[in-house]
Amino acid sequence: MDLLNLARTCKSLRQLLMVKSSAFVWKAARRQIDGLPDCPADLTEPEYANLVFYPRCQICGKYAKAVLWEMRRRYCLGCTVRRLSALSSCPQVVQNNNVVASEDTALTEGVTKSCVDKDQMESFIHEYKHSSNRKQFVMDRVEQHTTISKHARQCERWEGYQEYKYHVEMHDRRKERENSIIERLKQLGFEREVEYFTPYRIAESCKTLFWKFKPLTSKEWNQLLPKTLKTMNSFRSKRLESVVYRSRRKLLASEYANYIMHPLPNAPALDIFPYVVDVASFSTFRDIIKAPEDTQISLESAFAELPELVGKWREKLDTEFAELVKIPSHLSRAGVSSDRAVASSGNTGLAPSQTAMDKLRLACALFRVDSMGLFSYPEVLFISNMAYSKFPTYDEHDLRCNGSIQDRYCIEYIVEAPYVVHACGLDPNVATVEDMDRRNARLKCLSCEDSCVRHWRAAVWHAFYFHRWPMWQPKVPRLQLVSDEHLAAELSLKEELDQDLFRCLLCLPRVGGAIDHSSITDHLMDE
């Protein structure tokens, strides 16, 4: 390549190097190239060197990587299309005899054909027509083509080997750069991340840094370091979650299950304990889980603080659920004494003298979980499918669910409940469950053709389940209170709400602790 460039520097040098007597210079330069076939008889040494080493189109001078070895040509894509012709379009003497060099080339996208050089083909046809002995002429050209073809195959093998050596060299350079980067990452304290995720995966995430062939310089390293640190810290977080925090959460889940199922004699008397997901989110437990990797952890001190933590959790939960209870202002009965007012009509906030539990004791404070039925608070938290999040993870011990309990478990306030309480003749802002049970009213649905008489709870469920469509657009229930004199006659058509769920009294009360009939035996055997 240097000799070719030298021949192009000035006219005098070109004339000197292109004369036949200078062939020894070209031969000496060529023999320094390992494995390169000798110069063929149909080319001069300068022509051969130009074909092999000069990466430019012989017609237009554009970059051209591929060499057409049999044709002794190097064309760019555009000139390939213009200068070549399909062998099938040539005269029969060319098609039936190997007299013109041919190459398998794609002249159109996706279609590869055997092609010949138009100039070479036309030159052969011209000589063939003017030949005095055409048969001998064809035989000579076949022999010549065979020699050229044999040399072309040697050149193709040499070219393939050169490409292989180039790829090996580039691979070695990239590997050397990768080793240098990995060593620097280990020096920065990311040795465990490298071992856990492997250098290959790290390189895939930092291609800008890894996928180069030149040696890594300090300047380049300093430029890419901030972005690299961000990526490696992300890997560290993933590794800690998978290797360290996950095992600690498993330990928490195991010890908490034992705490619930085998309560100590001095266990605090609380009406409900949180699900383990919420326990893991308590700051005391979270700090232990997220403690440095080499720290020997113990949950004993955290469990000692659990009653206080549960108390704060319960206060927050009471407020959140109380905010869900909304009672329309027009349902308030006139004449109710102010000292009995519990809910503030027309808004979701709490009255100055009102606590969250006051509001949650109202008869209309009813909730549902999925399609499990109606539940008051805190009974709604015991439902067995509360253990499964609305957005479940593949690992039940992951314990990283986000959001409130209402969002996680699809808990919904039944907005039809205040209307049912009002239809029974009581003020939903005041009436408690005990008031409604003492009233013991029965109602008929005026929107249905059936004549079923329903207890107030069943009436709430009926209004929600059968007359809310679409589900996000509640409708005002059309209900009729059955008078006392007709009540006895119609009780035979009554419809009650079936809720066959139980809670184990041997365990501490816990979110998601309710058990259906089919699971009681398995639970007691676990005990």
TrEMBL record:
<protein>
    <recommendedName>
        <fullName>F-box domain-containing protein</fullName>
    </recommendedName>
</protein>
